[in-house]
Design a protein that fits this description.
The complex is a heterodimer. Chain A is about 75% helix and about 0% strand. By secondary structure, chain A is mostly helical. Classes of the chains: A mainly alpha, B mainly alpha. At the A-B interface, helix 6, helix 7, helix 11, helix 12 and helix 14 of A face helix 1, helix 2, helix 3 and helix 4 of B.
Amino acid sequence: MNKTLLTGAPLIGMGASLGAFANAAGAMAGVNLNAIGMFFVFVIISLGITWWAAGRTKSTSDFYTAGGQISGFQNGLAITGDWCSSAALMGIAALIYSTGFDGLIYSVVPFGAWPLMMFLLADRLRNLGKYTIADIVSLRMARVPIRSLIATAGLAFVIGYLIVQMVGAGTLISNLFGLNYEVAQVIIGVLIVVYVAFGGMIATTYVQLIKAVLLLSGATFITVAVLAKFGFSIDGLYAAAVAKHPTKEAVMQPGGLLPDPINAISCGVMLLFGGAAMPHVLMRFFTVPDAKQARLSVAWAATFIGYFYLLTFFIGYGAVAFVMDDPKFMDEVTGAIRGGPNMAAIHLAEAMGGDLLLGFISAVAFATIVAVVAGLTIAGASAISHDLYANVLRHGQATDAEVVKVSRIAAIGLGALGVALGIAFKDQNIAYLIVLPFTISSTVFFPVLFLAMYWRRLTTTGIITGGWIGLASAIVMLVVGPTIWKDILGNPEPLFPYKYPALFSMAISFGTMVIVSLLDGSERGKREVALFDDQFVRSQTGLGAEGATQH
Amino acid sequence: MQHLYERIDRDPRFHALARRRSLLGWGLSAAVLVAYYAFILAIAFAPGLLAMPLGPDTVLTVGIIAGLAVIVMSVALTGVYVWRANRTFDGLNAAIVGDATRDA
C-alpha cells in the first residue's frame, strides 16, 4: 500500500471540504454552522477509519468482504445504513406531511422485503456466495454470459440509484447547509472515492454503521420529543395532526396513491421482490463468516429498519402537528413550507430541539447520503472489477493485485460519474428514477437468484434468454409508460398503461427462463442440471463455503 | 469436496433437515405475503375499511394499526426463523456434516 497516497488522501478530502465550507460561508448568508461543524466531525472520524481500514485492505477478499470478519450485529447495523437512504427519513416524512396515510404505505410495504430475504435467500446466499451475486449463479452456470448479464443489470441498477441519491443530495444540502449545489456534489464525490477506493468494504461498513447509529438516535430523539409534548399519548399526537391538516380526518385514511388494483399489485411485487434482491445489500452477506451470522445480520437489520419505519409513523404526523401553519417554517412569499415538503422532518427537528437538533439532523442527512452512495459505489466497483474484468475479460486469470487495482480505478470512475450525473440532472424531477433499480432488481436479480438456488432444471441458456428479454421489456415498459412517455416526453397517451411494470417484466423474465431451460437439450445444459445436487448440499450445509480470512 | 457432497446427499437425515427448513421458510414466506397483499389490496379495493376509526373517542384508524401490526409481525416472524434455525437446524446440520467428514 502506498503510504504517501494514503496519508495524503484524507488531507485532500478535508482540504476540499474546508475550502468548500469557507467559500460557501463567504458567499451565502444562510449557512448552518452547527450542521457544518457536526458533519465535519463525522468526516474526520470516517476518514480516520478509512486510513485505518486502508492498512488492512490488501486482497480482493479484504476489498469486497472485509475479509469475511464482520459480526452479524455490526453487519445488521451496516445494512440498516445501506437501506435507509435520506428518502427514508425525509421522503416518508414529506409524503405523510402532504398526504397523510398514503405516505405510511412507503414505510410499511418496502419492509416486507426483509422477512422474504431472510426466509428464502439469506442462508443459501451466504453458503454459496463469494463477492457478488453473480458468483452464486456461476457455480453451475457458464461464467461469461451469466456475469455479463448480471454485471450489466447491476451497473444499470447502481447508476439509476446513484442519480436519485446525488440529485436529492445536492438539493438537500444546498437547503440545509447553505452550500452551492455543485460544491455539494464534489464533496460527496470526493468522500465516496476516498472511502471506497482506499478503505474498501471495511471503511464502507464502518461509515454505514456510524451513520445508522446517528440516524436511529436522531429519529428516536425527535419521536420522544414529539410524544413528550402530548404526555406520551399517541392518540393526542394524531388528534393534533388531524386538527392541523387541511384534509382533517382524511389524513388518517388511504387516499389515491395506488390508483388501480394492477398498479397496486405491481408496485407490491416491485417493492417486495425487488427489495429482497438488491445487489448492494446482498453483497453485505458475504462480509460475515458463516450462515448463522448472515441470519443474525438480517435479524438485526430487520429489527433496526422495522424500528426506524415505526418511528416514521410519529415523525411524519409530528411534522403535521408542529410544522404545518407555523409561520416560522413557511415561505413569506408563497406561504408554502420553506424548502418544500422534503424539509418537513428537518423543520420538525428545529421545532423540537432548536438549532442544535436542527444541526444534528442536517449532519445526519448528509452522512446518510454519503453512506448510501458509498455502498452503491462498492457494489458497482465489484460488478466492474470482479465480474466484468476478472471473469469476463481475463477469464479468471487476473492476479489479486490486478483486481484490487481495477476495483480502485472503478471506484474513482463511479465517483466521478456520480458527480457528473448529479450536475447533469440538476433541477430535474428525477423521483421516478427510483422505480428503475427496483424494477431491474425484481426482473433480473430475484428470478435469477431464486431459480438458480431452488430449481434444478435451470440452465445458462434459460437465464440469459429470460434475463435479457426481461431487462429489455422492463426498460421499454418504463419508457413508454405514463411517467416518461406522457408526463416527461409530453405525449398525449402512454403506450403502456401502468406506472409500475414489475409485475409484467418479472413474469416475462421468470416465464422465459423456465420455458427456455426446459427446452434446452444441450450438453452444457445437462451438465448444469447435474451439478444441482452438489450445489444443493453446499447451500444447505455451508460445506465448502467461503470462510473468513485471517491476517 | 465432491465425495463429501455425495455422501451427505445419501444421508436421509440431510433430506429430512432440508425439508424441515424449507417447510418453515415457505410457511413463513406465505404468511408474510398474505399479510402484505391483504394490506396492499385493502388500500386498492377497500380503502373504506382502513379508513374506519377504531372507536368513538379516538382518531386512530384501522389502517394505522394495520400498518403498525404488519411491521411488528414481520420483525417477529424474522425472529422466529432465526431462533429455529440457530437453535435446532444448526445443531442437526453440524451432526450431519460431522459424520460425513469423520467417515471420509
